[in-house]
Amino acid sequence: MISFRIFKPGEDAAEIYRFRYKIYEEEMQRHDRYADHEKKIIIDPLDNHGYNIAVYEDGVIIGVVRVNFCTDGDPGEYLDFYELKGRGRDYPDKVSYSTRLMVEPAYRGGVLPLLISVECFKLGLERGVNWCICDCNSNVLPFFKKLGYEVQDAGKIHPSFGKVIVLRFNLRDPKHYDRKQSVFARYLEGSLHTT
User: Could you tell me which CATH number the domain at 2-192 has?
Assistant: First the structure.
């Protein structure tokens, strides 16, 4: 049985940090600059004010992602990397950014990445966000485009992950949902009149 848990800032998310290490360092050999090889964890400054979402199957983590809200803390290098102020009057109150989405290999071709993305979307709606910014590698770009994300910058160099594509997503644009046929559309209608 699959279940979700949101770790709020300040909560002990050690199991998520261990999962990150397992995926990034042991499986993908990505050599994350924040990896602690002694403790076998990855934790970075954004965890201080981020919401970490974990997905479990029978009590074991099979996927994670982190969502940060620009009002909650310093985005650090992501302020410029994601051009967060480029959202104009919506910055900082209505802008979030998502990082560290990772899934166990056996679940990558299935529905799990979609379910995780829906949880991020719902959390953003609850917080009154208009924009979510993230980045991805080119091999998963079709997945994000199908959700309704648009390319903001196709040639950014991430300090840990090399060349990535920065994406932006407008959570509250019904025309955009209709055009892209995003799975998020069903969650949008009930939320527009609550904010």
Answer: 3.40.630.30
